[in-house]
Amino acid sequence: MLIAHLSDFHLFTERSETGEARGDIARVLEALVADIAALAPRPDIVAISGDLADGGTPADYARLTALLAPLSMPILAVPGNHDRRGAMREGLGSRLTGLVPGPFLNARVALPGVTLLGLDTVVPGAPHGTLCAERLNWLEGELASSKGTTVIVMHHPPVQTGHPHWDTFSLIEGRERFAELLAGRSVRILCGHIHQPFHTDWGAHHVGVAGSPAFEYHLTPGSIETPCPQPVPFSYPLHHWGPQGVSVYRRHLRA
């Protein structure tokens, strides 16, 4: 089993909502997609943990659909705080695998030995994340029927990063019950949002943040400095299930 984990494209066609996303992000995504498409063996699935767009207009998602077209494997994606649920479902939904009906962009994809659950943590108009009772109840039901390893894809990390700026914008509401639902399980959680490759343990669970091809920060634990984008090469993680367990490899792109 091989999962390519991507996040935080911040693609925009007209105006950047953050003001920080690189103007040539479409070209960067073309190179990224070409790299994934050329992998041998190819990934079984691509997981994208939010902020696919930087403002979420219909034109943004139409452009994303075209850019992702060379990928023949399934794609599971959840929204981030710069996405717009309605436009994302309407414009990109036909390309995504496992989306479930309802007000949230949750998803489920079952593969041999692995169940991926996409969990929508967005609060419209706010940078932080939440898991309300409806989303947590959905997750509880899905966990009960999951087979093999469970991989949860969500935008906002449920962990404290050690950086005061980002920790106020992580998963704030519903984190306690989320942890209770995962108790007794070993779950892999794939996140985005903080624009810095980052791996940690959260109890028995592995948490991996993918980084961003749009702009990345240096993350210094305990620092009180406001993060500033850094001109660093982009890389994305590949999660590989092998005979010794799960290994995480990084593919580097200089785009």
List strands and helices in order, with pairings.
Elements: E1 2-6, H1 25-37, E2 45-49, H2 58-68, E3 75-78, H3 85-92, E4 107-111, E5 114-119, E6 129-130, H4 133-145, E7 149-154, H5 164-167, E8 171-173, H6 175-182, E9 187-191, E10 198-202, E11 205-209, E12 216-217, E13 229-230, E14 234-242, E15 245-253
Parallel strand pairs: 1-2, 2-3, 5-7, 6-8, 7-9, 9-11
Antiparallel strand pairs: 1-14, 4-5, 10-11, 12-13, 14-15
Protein described:
With 255 residues, the chain is of the alpha/beta class. Helix content is 22%, strand content 29%. The protein is built from six helices and 15 strands. It has helices spanning 25-37, 58-68, 85-92, 133-145, 164-167, 175-182, and strands at 2-6, 45-49, 75-78, 107-111, 114-119, 129-130, 149-154, 171-173, 187-191, 198-202, 205-209, 216-217, 229-230, 234-242, 245-253. The longest helix is centred in the first third of the chain and has 13 residues, at 25-37. The mean pLDDT is 92.
